[in-house]
Fold these 2 entries.
Entry 1:
Amino acid sequence: MSESIWSKTVKFPERTPLRGDLAVDAAVIGGGLAGILTAHFLREAGLRAVVLEAARVGSGQTKNTTAKITSQHSLVYHRLTERFGEEKARQYAQANQQAIAEYRHLIGSQRIACEWADCPAYLYSTAEREPLAREFETAKKLGIDASYCSETELPFPVAAALRFDHQARFHPLKFLRAVADPLEVYELTRVTAAEENRVVTDRGTVTAGHIIFACHYPFQNFPGYYFMRMHQERSYVIALENTARLEGMYLGVDQDGLSLRPDGGLLLLGGGSHRTGENSAGGQYRKLREAAGRYWPGSREAAHWSAQDCMTLDGIPYIGRFSASTPSWYVATGFQKWGMTSAMVSARMISDLIVKGETPWEPVFSPQRFTPSASARTLMQETAQAAKGLTRRIFTPPQADIEALPCGHGGVVECGGEKLGVYKDGQGETFVVSIRCPHLGCQLEWNPDERSWDCPCHGSRFDYRGNLIDNPAQEDLEHE
C-alpha cells in the first residue's frame, strides 16, 4: 500500500482497546481529525468524552489529505448564493474562515509544532476567465479577502486566478497527535451498532448521553439514509523533489485541473478525481507523473498516495443532528475535498450543540435539510448509480477467467457458475474474494491503481485480500 508523507514522519502511541462496558457523557465514533477535535472541545467544556476507533488514531482519511486549511472550496460561493441565497453563503464562508482562526488559536495557545504556515490559496483556470470573475465578485460581497489576477508563480500560463489571503497549511498528523494526547481513546474497538443511547462495539458497550458519528461515512443506514444522499470519490497525489518552490496553494477549476501545494522541499501534485469504483482502466498516477515530467523535468517522486472524499447531494457537508428521531445523535460527514476546515467546523458546531444547545451555522449545514432545487437531480443520479451497482452482479459478463488473468492484474471472473474477484500477484499467487459488497450488496470493481476492490454505489473499499479499507461497510470480504 502507498503511504503519505504524513504517515512516513509521525508515529502514534498505541491505545488500549475498550475493555467491557462504560458510561460517559459523549461517545465519539472515529479517531480522525473531526472526531479528535470534537472530543477535545467537549473535554474542554468539562464533559467526559471517549473516542472509539476501529483501527488506530489517524489511520483513516486524515493521513491522506493534502492538508490545505482554506475557506476557498473551488467555485463554491457563487453556486451557494444562487441556490441558497446570500445569507447562507455568508454563513458557510464565516464558518470556514472561523475554522482557520480556530486552528491558529489552538496551535498557538498549546504551542503545537505542526509546521503551520500562513499562505495564500488560489483557484486558477487555463481556459476560462468568467467563472473565476463571478466567484471573485461573490466573494467580495460575502466579505472574503480575495483578489483577481492573471499572473501566478505556476510553471504554465493561466487565463485567470482567484487569490484568497490568510489561508494556511500544516502537518495534519503532528497536529492530530498533539490534540489526541490527553484524550480518552480506545483503539482496535469497532463500533457495530448504535441503539438509542448505547454504542455497541466488538469489545463492549458504551452508554452515552450523546453519540457523535465522526467516522467519515456513517455506517448506520437508518435513520438518516446517508447512503442515499452521498457518494464517494477518490483522488491521487504524488510528492515531488527538485521542483520550483511555490509560495501559495493552487487548485485548477478546469476538468482534470491540478492541485499544487508546497511542503518544505516537496511539492504535492494532485488530481485524477473519479467516483469510487469507476477506475477500471487505471492510469491516474501515470497522468500526474506525466504532468510532473512536463513542468519539472528534473523532479523526482518521493511518495504517492490517494484520498477518499464523501460528496453530498448539494455540495454542503452534513454537520449537526443525525436525524429528527435521534435528538442525542450527531454526525459530521460529506466534507467534499475540504476535510481540514470542515473537521474544525464540525467539531465547533457539534460541541456547541451539545454544550449550548445551538450554533449559528446550523441552518446551512443541517443534515435535516433537503433542497429539491439543489438536490433532486443528484438524488436521482445516486439512486440510479446504486441500482446499476446492484444489477452488475446479475447481468455484467465476467472480465476474464482465472487462467487468462495476467500476473499483477485483477478482475471479475466466472468460477463454478459464480462471479468472484481475483487478483494474481507478480509471482502468480492468486487471491480470490467475493465481489459482493457487505454493505448493501453492490458488485465491486477492481481499481488497478491501488490494487483494491471498490464499491461504485457507496464507496466501500477492500484490499486484494478482502480486508476492509474504507467504510461504510463494516466487514471484510468473504475469501478463499
Entry 2:
Amino acid sequence: MSDHLNTALELAEAGVPVLPLRAGKLPFGNCRACAGSACGDRPNMLAAGPCQCPKPCHGWAAATTDPRTLASPAWAAAWRQAAAVAYHPAGTLLTVVDLDSPAAVAWARQSLPPTRTVATTRGEHWIYRGTMQSSNGVRPGVDIKSRMSYARWLGPGTGTMADLPDAVRALVVKEPSTVRPTAVTVPTGGTGGECPHRTPVYLERGIAMAEQRITEAREAIHATVYRTFLAVLAAHGRCGCLTEAHVERLFAAAQAKGERPRHCADAWGNARTRLGL
C-alpha cells in the first residue's frame, strides 16, 4: 500500500474527503465514459463522491471518505501514480487561503486574523473554519479554496483555527460599477425589452420564493434543493445580480431542512454546470 493511500485512509477515517493528485497538483482525468461530462455528472449531482466508473472521476467531486472506494482495485492505478493527496475543504467545513509567495504571506499577516497555518513549497495555507465560494487570483499570489475546489494535504498545520472572517469573504466580491442601472435593455427577437433581473424587488421576490419552496418541501429534499437552485440560477445567474448574501440565504434554507453544507455547495455547482455558467 502506497504512502499516499495510507495518508488518504487516515484522513478519511477522520471525516476528511480526499482524492489522489497526479504530477502538477492536478486531479486524475475522467474515465472515457465521463469525458466531457458525457455522463451528465449525474453521480455527483447532489454531493461530492466517486462516480460509478472505474476511476476517481470529476476532479474535486471525486473526494470521498469511503475507505472501500479509496482502497478499491479501481483506484489502485491512480494511487500508484499519485504525486500527492488532496482534500475538499468545504467537505469538512473549511476554507483554505492559499498564499503562494512570500509577498502574499506578508500581506496576510498584516490584513487577516491569525489562524492555523500550513507551510507549502512557496508560501502558506491559512485555514479558517467555515465555507465560501472558491476563487483563484483574488490578489497577487492568493487563491481561495473551499466549495467546489481541492487543496493539497500538507499536514495538520500549527496554530488555533479561527472562524472565517469577512475580510476573506470580501476577497471574492466583485467591485460594483460606478453607475449601475436598475434595468438594462437586452435584445428580444429584434425588439427592445427590459431585463428585470437587476430590479431589487424582482430579485428579492425570487429569492424569497425559493426559500419558501425549500422550506415547504416535505419529501425529496435533495431534489427540491437542486431544482430550486437551478431555477434561481436560470433566472438570475447570468446578469450578475446574485451576491454571496443571496447564496447564503438559499444555503441556510436548505440546511434548515437537514442538508449538509457540502450537499448545498455541490447542488449549486452542478446547477451552474447544467446551465453552462
